[in-house]
Structure formats: structure tokens, C-alpha cells
Design goal:
The chain is an alpha/beta fold and about 170 residues long. It has a single domain (about 10-170), classed as Flavodoxin domain (Rossmann fold, 3-Layer(aba) Sandwich). Helix content is about 40%, strand content about 25%. The chain contains 7 helices and 8 strands. It has helices spanning about 1-5, 20-35, 70-80, 80-85, 105-115, 140-145, 160-170; strands spanning about 10-15, 40-45, 55-65, 70, 90-95, 125-130, 130, 155. Helix 5 (about 105-115) links the parallel strand 5 and strand 6 (about 125-130). Helix 2 (about 20-35) packs across helix 7. The model is unreliable at about 1-5 (pLDDT under 50). The structure holds flavin mononucleotide. The site of flavin mononucleotide has 21 residues, from helix 2, strand 3, strand 5 and strand 7. Flavin mononucleotide binds near residues 23, 109 and 130.
Length: about 170
């Protein structure tokens, strides 16, 4: 028994969904921070993951689009609920809600994040400000963003992201 627990080396998977790359870069930053604890880390696009075998904890991240977490995150949680319910799981969402002038935006974003992780109980959750490049969206969406007064730019706060990842180290044990 003792032999088994000693041989169970910690291995953390950071699984991300992304459409325009900003969540992927956040996932990589989280992976780099977690690696500093000496743990084996794999950062992978959620679409490439075929199994959770060998992982002892999982961090899931995805962007928010139209009030919901990216559908690939929701599918991933559904597909692997059994395995994920036996290990520590953390989840982060990336969006522009923190820059949205509407006061309810952050509450709505957190609700989308919490809905995506049901029925699991994550050890930690986070909402990070993302990035929006007007060149990457269509004319109508640009008009919508302007009307909603949601700004363009790269709002990713690397210090906040690193601080969250640093705290995660202990929680994912
Ligand atoms: C069409 C569209 C819809 C969006 N909807 C939301 C939203 O509902 N909530 C939010 O917080 N951010 C929203 N965003 C902002 C994205 O979540 C943000 O740009 C994020 O950084 C994108 O991540 P990605 O680069 O990994 O795809 C939206 C962006 C676009 C272009």
C-alpha cells in the first residue's frame, strides 16, 4: 500500500480550449508556474486529449463566448466526469467581463464558469481578463462590442495569473 502511494508521482494536466489563442497563452503561463514546484506538467489543447490516465490533478481553462464557457470545456467535463471526480480539479475562464461596464457582467461570467464545471467541486476557480483584437471579429460583432462599450485590447494580467497558479500548487496535491 505504502509502495503504491509512493510510486504515484504527481502529474498535472492543464487542459485548455481557445478560439483566438489568448486562453492558450494563459494556460501555458499557468503550466510554467506550476512547473516551478517540481511537478510534471502537461499543457494541452482540450481537442488533443484522448485520456486522463496517469494524471493526478487537472486544471481546465476556456474562453467565454456569448455568455457561455466554450462548448469544448463543457464536453470535456461531461466526458471525463468519472475520472475528474476522483482528483483535484481547478477551472479558469477567460473573458472581457472584467472590462465590461455593466455591473452584472462579472456575476454572469462566474455563473457561466460554475455551470461549466457541474457536477464537480473545483478546488479553485478564477476569471481572468482576456484579449480582443478587432481584426479577428466581424463587422457586426465589432459594432455590438462598441455599442456595449466593451474595449479592445490585451487585458491579460500576468501577475494575477501567476499568483493564482502559485496558490494552486498546494491545492492540487
Ligand atoms: C463574439 C465574441 C463573444 C464574446 N463573448 C464574451 C462573453 O460572453 N463574456 C466575456 O467575458 N467575454 C466574451 N468575449 C471575449 C472573449 O472571451 C475574449 O476575447 C477571450 O480572451 C477569448 O479567448 P481566446 O483568445 O482563447 O479565444 C467575447 C468575444 C467575442 C469575439
Amino acid at each position: 500500500m505504502l509502495y503504491i502511494s509512493e510510486s504515484m508521482e504527481k502529474r498535472i494536466l492543464v487542459a485548455y480550449a481557445t478560439r483566438n489563442g489568448s486562453t492558450a497563452e494563459i494556460a501555458q503561463a499557468i503550466g510554467r508556474e506550476l512547473e516551478k514546484t517540481g511537478t510534471a506538467i502537461t499543457v494541452a489543447d482540450i481537442m488533443t486529449i484522448r485520456s486522463l490516465e496517469g494524471y493526478t490533478a487537472v486544471v481546465i481553462g476556456g474562453p467565454l463566448y456569448m455568455g457561455r464557457m466554450d462548448g469544448l470545456v463543457i464536453k470535456f467535463v461531461k466526458k471525463y466526469t468519472g475520472e475528474l471526480s476522483h482528483m483535484p480539479v481547478a477551472i479558469f475562464a477567460v473573458g472581457l467581463a472584467p472590462k465590461d461596464p455593466k455591473p452584472e457582467a462579472i456575476g454572469n461570467a462566474m455563473m457561466a464558469l460554475e455551470t461549466a464545471i457541474i457536477p464537480l467541486s473545483p478546488v479553485s476557480t478564477a476569471l481572468f481578463a482576456g484579449k480582443l483584437d478587432p481584426a479577428k471579429i466581424g463587422f457586426l460583432m465589432r459594432k455590438f462590442m462598441e455599442m456595449a462599450k466593451i474595449p479592445y485590447g490585451d487585458f491579460r494580467d500576468w501577475e494575477t495569473i501567476a499568483a493564482w497558479a502559485k496558490e494552486l500548487g498546494d491545492k492540487l496535491r
